[in-house]
Amino acid sequence: MATSADRIYSLEGKGLKLTTAEDIAPYLEELRNVAILEELRLNGNTIGAEAATALAETLKTKETLKIATLHDIFTSRLKDEVKESVIAICAALSELPSLVEVNLSDNAFGPLGAEAMADFLSKHTGLQVLKLNNNGLGINGGKTIANALIKCQALCEEQGKEPSLHTIICGRNRLENGSAPVFAQAFAALKTLREVRMPQNGIRPEGIAELVGGLANNSKLAILDLQDNTFTESGSKALAEALIKWEALEIINIGDCLLGSKGGRVIIEALKDRETLKTINLQYNEIEYDGAIALAESLRGLKLLESLELNGNRFDAESNAVELIKAALSENDLDDDILGSLSDMEELTDSEEEEEEEEEEEAEEAKEKAEEEEDKTAKTATATSKADEQLADLVSEMKKQLNV
Asked: Are 18 and 76 in contact (CB under 8 A)?
C-alpha cells in the first residue's frame, strides 16, 4: 500500500539547472513512475521554457496531484522565457481536477507572469490555496490576479457551487493603492476567505480601507497579515469597523503600519470583542501611553492570547501602562512571556515625556474623580432613600389622622 511519502515527488533545493527537455528527462521519468502523485516539490531549481513545456506534458497525466510547490524555479531566466514557462505549466495545472494548492512565490515574473496565470486562476474553481509572494506583480499584475479571481467566483456561481479559495498570500508585490479596489471586489465576492496575507505592498490608507471593506464580507476570516503597509487614522478606523465582522479571528499582524496614536487606540478598542484572538502584532506603530492603557482594558476579554508584540511603540517599557497590561494577562491566567520584548521602544522627546507624565497624572486623577463621584452618588442615593422613607411615614400618619 502506498504511504504518504510515496505520493510526494521532490527535487526541493537541489539547485538543478534544467534548461532543455533533455536536461529534465531523467526526472520526468521518475515522476511518471509515481503511481499516485499528490504533491510535487520543484522549488530551489531553475527551469527553462523548453524544460517547462516537457514538464507540463507529464503533469497533465497526474490527475491526483493536490499540491504544486513551484516557488523559486525561474532564477536567472529571461522574462519572456518565464512567461512561456508559466503559460505551459498553468495550462497543465488547469487539467488537474484534484489540485487545491499552488505556490509560485519568489518567481520574479511581474505582470507578464500574472497574465500567464490568469486563464488558470479564472477557471480552476477547486483551488483552495494561492501563494504568490514576492513576484514583482506591481499594480497591473495585482489587478490581473484579482480580476481572474472575480471571474472564477462568477464561474462558481454559474455552476451553482461556492468558491473553494480560502487562503491568499500575496505579499512583497508592490500592489499599492492602484490594485486595492479590484482585490477588494474579489474579496467581497469570494466570502470564503480564512487567511489573507498581504504584507509589504506599499498600500496606503485609502487602499487599506478598500481592502478591509471587501474582507468584511468574509465572516470566517481567521488570519490577517497586512504588516508594513500604511494605515494612519483613516485606515485604522476602517479596520476597526471590519473587525466587528470577523468573529473567528485568531491572528492579526499589523506591525509597522503607522497606525499613529489615534489610529492605534481605535483598533485596540475594537479588539476587545475578538475573544478568539491568539496572536496580536502591533509593533512600531507610534502607539502612545493612552493606547497602552486602552490595550490593558481590551486584553481582559482575550483569554486565548498566546502572543502580543508591542515593541517599537511610544510609551515607556517601565510605565504603569505596561504593568496594567501584565496584570490583565495575569487575570486571564496567561504568562508574562506572552508579551514580547520591549527593548526598542521609541524614545520620546523631553516635551513628549512631560506630556506622557501629564497623561498618567490625568488618568490617575480621572480615576480618583470617578471613585469620588461613585461615592457621592452612593451617599446621595442613601440620603434619597431615607428621605423617601420619611415621606412615606408622614403620608401614612396623615392618612391615619384623616381616618380618625
From this structure: no
Residue 382 parent element (H or E): helix 350-403
More confident: 145 or 375: 145
Smallest CA-to-CA distance from 302 within 262, 331, 336 is with 331
Buried residues in 195-222 as b, exposed as e (16+ CB within 10 A):
bbbbbbbbbbbebbbbbbbbbbbbeebb
3-state secondary structure 264-322: HHHHHHHHCCCCCCCEEECCCCCCEHHHHHHHHHHHHHCCCCCEEECCCCECCCCCHHH
Segment 351-371 mean pLDDT: 61
Instruction: Please provide the average confidence, as pLDDT, over all residues in the chain.
Output: 92
pLDDT per residue over 219-260, tens digit each?
A: 999 999 999 999 999 999 999 999 999 999 999 999 999 999
Evaluate whether 107 touches 113 at the Cβ level (below 8 Å): yes
Distance from C-alpha of 261 to C-alpha of 287, rounded to nearest angstrom: 5
Give the pLDDT of residue 5.
Answer: 79
Distance, CA of 291 to CA of 314 (rounded, Å): 10
The whole model's pTM is what?
A: 0.86
